[in-house]
From TrEMBL, chains A, B:
GO terms for cellular component: cytosol. Pfam families: AsnC_trans_reg (PF01037), HTH_24 (PF13412). PROSITE patterns: HTH_ASNC_2. GO terms for molecular function: sequence-specific DNA binding. It comes from Streptomyces coryli. This is Lrp/AsnC family transcriptional regulator. SMART domains: HTH_ASNC. Residues 3-64 form the HTH asnC-type domain.
Length: 157, 157
DNA sequence: GGTGAAAGGTCATTAAG
DNA sequence: CTTAATGACCTTTCACC
């Protein structure tokens, strides 16, 4: 979907102050309220904005340790492995990838010791041949979208 | 922070229907309006809920390709490399990790061909010794938090 | 619990592609 | 000619005290 400069400013504003209302947003952007509403509707209809789900911090829930695990899967076991991983609450995200290793998942745990339990649960399943884990130490760039939005907005394509 | 069963139900409800109001939420949870407001305040004060930022889909913005790159960094160049990566809009996330490779970043691109441009920009920097990239094919488990929340809520600790 | 304030919808008019 | 923006009005709903 093509995003114009106003969409970009709207998304940036929403990212900075999520609790802002449509009316207040229209004031900040110096456009009519209906315009902001129409843009929001369009962005949501086109899937650019998936939703406004609460941004929950696993660390604040008692899971301060994050890790990425690369898994190697036996041929034909993909579907079973996916279902298994989806059933583990500490698996926050799962991707199938190219290259060595067939899946990449993001894990959280209560401590480094607890991570061992999580990994055991994750890899203790037929079809997972091998796993290599990298523990996250710092997160210099937390998941962000604003720079990309601004680049997309400036590229009238 | 300790989460009880009501917090868990509230977070689950918010994740399912983010645009819900405090009043409507209190009806669904069958508790008083003030209770929901107090819980929300507490969850936000304690950092469990970071915010309600818009959930933007990079694919809908024209960046349907996702990849993870593992970077090996020269000693003492960490800070410079971080600043460089933070300046690239297509870098959505950056972690420093243990093990072989020193950083892991999530990238998006307009196409597989465009990914080459992004990778060139990412690794074309003094201090980055080596990079290995895995392209994401499928995403069987998109970033999620509800299962973890429910586990945390059921573990009265 | 009451009240001021938004959200959300519709409309006619106007501007711009 | 088609699409979008605007300001006006309305009703319902919510947030805050």
């Amino acid at each position: 979907m093509k995003i114009d400069e106003l969409d970009g400013r709207l998304l940036t504003l929403l990212a900075a102050e999520p609790r802002i209302g449509v009316l207040e947003a229209s004031r900040r952007l110096a456009v009519a309220r209906g315009t902001v509403q129409a843009r929001l509707d369009r962005l949501q209809t086109n899937g650019v904005i998936r939703g406004f789900g609460p941004d929950v911090d696993p660390a604040a829930l008692g899971y301060p340790v994050t890790a990425f695990a690369t898994l190697e899967i036996s041929q034909g076991q993909g579907a079973d492995v996916r279902a298994h991983l989806a059933s583990v609450p500490e698996v926050l995200e799962l991707h199938t990838i190219t290259g060595h290793g067939d899946m990449l998942c993001r894990l959280v745990a209560r401590s480094n010791a607890d991570l061992q339990r999580v990994i055991d649960r994750v890899v203790g399943f037929d079809g997972i041949v091998r796993a290599s884990t990298a523990i996250v130490m710092e997160n210099p760039v937390p998941l962000r979208i604003v720079p990309l939005v601004q680049q997309a907005a400036s590229q009238r394509e």
